[in-house]
Amino acid sequence: MEKILTGIRSTGTPHLGNILGVIIPSVNMANKNEKHSSFIFIADLHSLIQVNNIQTIKNNTYQIAAAWLAFGLNAENCLFYRQSDVSEVTELAWYFSCFFPYQRLTLAHSFKNEIKKTNKEKISLGLFSYPILMAADILLYNAKIVPVGKDQLQHIEIARRIASFFNKKIGHKLFVLPNAFLQKKMMSVPGTDGEKMSKSKKNWINIFSSDEILKKQIMSIRTDSQSLEEKKNHETDYIMSLYKLIASLDQIEKMKEKYIRGGYGYYEAKIALYELIIHKFSIERKKFFYFMKNKSLLDHILDSGAKKAKIIAHKRLNDIRKCFKFNPLI
Ligand code: ADP
Ligand code: TRP
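# tryptophan complex -> structure
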């Protein structure tokens, strides 16, 4: 059976984009996959690049863990861990960084986007080499299937390049070439402003916030200024774009009719989306708050996942160290 692996950074509470794009499809695959062949982790080392408050990273780590479990991840069947608990990955990232061309990394979106917004002097080396650590996350376990959103495709491409470069250099297939797993409809869930929903843009819908905040977020979805009476375009409207990702076919058809007919306002459409979300995710929201109240349980689950992942990582890193004629880890 092929190995599945994915990670979410602990840079905030998982939003609807993370949930529809990655959490739900990964849980479906990981729960069906052979025991201990799926790797689901919280990328807290990657978070250090963006969040400078350590306590915030820790709190976010709990939120990400609670979200995965709320959506039904079977932590017994997979390896569910914090990236920082399996530090073998940082050694592998070093080997990769010694061979990967600097110039190629200057073309990575993560770096290019940041350079547009931030003074070069403030950009860390960690941000620059972000894709290298991500490649190590994947290649350490020889994962073949990597569920991600569209924004991560370039990173997977870099991981593939690194894998084939090393395989050629070593003369055998030490690394499996990973493939991104994307679902076309969900690969870039729009936020309240119609751009890709993202923690950094704060255009998110957070199903794990209180009813009141959730409603506020939904009410902030950008619309045009058409009046209640006018017929509306269900293909371009952002409320409808989100509704279509969650609702049943029957619900979508009914909503489309209301848009086409006119006499249906954006306020009503937002209320319909809010009620749909509350209804659709009521169990997951309850479970999330249960886990957030039981942080020692989350610690226990993540600690035991890390123990299992570490055994695999340790053995694998020793195989890689052999190629450099380094001694095995003690
Ligand atoms: P964010 O971009 O909000 O900071 P992360 O970078 O932690 O979120 O993303 C975690 C995973 O969720 C990645 O695989 C990413 O591609 C995916 N993802 C993030 N935002 C979206 C979105 N709007 N639609 C689909 N997938 C997304
Ligand atoms: N870079 C991913 C993000 O920003 C998180 C991540 C880190 C990841 N390592 C990974 C995703 C390995 C998939 C596989 O969301």
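# post-check
Residues 5-9, 43, 46, 134, 137-138, 146, 148, 152, 155 surround tryptophan (ligand 2) (CB under 6 Å).
The beta strands are 4-9, 38-43, 79-82, 145-147, 179-181.
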